Amino acid sequence: MYNNVLVPVSFDTERDSAGSLAVAKHLAGENGKIALLHVVEQVPNYVLSALPSEYQSDARETAEKELADMAATLPNASAHVIAGHAGRTVLDWAEKNQPDCIVIASHRPGMQDLLLGSTATQVVRHANCAVHVIR
């Protein structure tokens, strides 16, 4: 069992948040803590100018509410919404908060991942703790 489990959460429909939460709950046991983390990525200025002015604040509020609702279903869970680049920010948060394990959902890899990589790939390659990938 792990004492401190980090679960990066993407609200992308291709990611299995339910599976990640179930695995994290199992790995944390009765006494372990679970941190749910959502990273709000920066919207490019050329796109942002075409969106309503409240788009970013509304998106963050929605993410905070959904993540808090997820955390409420788990024992010893907390919700964190931060801004940044997904892969790098997850790693920075993990370095600062020292989880024992990261449970991260991933999509099925394709050709685009050979060139660009993915958040899960970056976390697996660079995390300083155990990483459990859910597909």
Please give a handful of descriptors for the protein shown.
135 residues, alpha/beta, five-stranded parallel β-sheet, 5 strands, 44% helix
Description:
The chain is α/β, with parallel strands linked by helices. 44% of the residues lie in helices and 22% in strands. It is built from 6 helices and 5 strands, in the order E-H-E-H-H-E-H-E-H-H-E. A 5-stranded parallel sheet has the order 3-2-1-4-5, with helices on both faces. Helix 4 runs parallel beside helix 6. It is globular, with a radius of gyration of 15 Å.
Structure described in brief:
This protein is an alpha/beta fold. Helix content is 44%, strand content 22%.
Please bin the fraction of helical residues: 40-55%
Q: How do the strands line up in the largest sheet? A: 3-2-1-4-5
Q: How many strands?
A: 5
Straight-line distance between termini? 21 Å
Q: Strand percentage, roughly?
A: 15-25%
Q: What letter string, H or E per element, gives the SSE order?
A: EHEHHEHEHHE
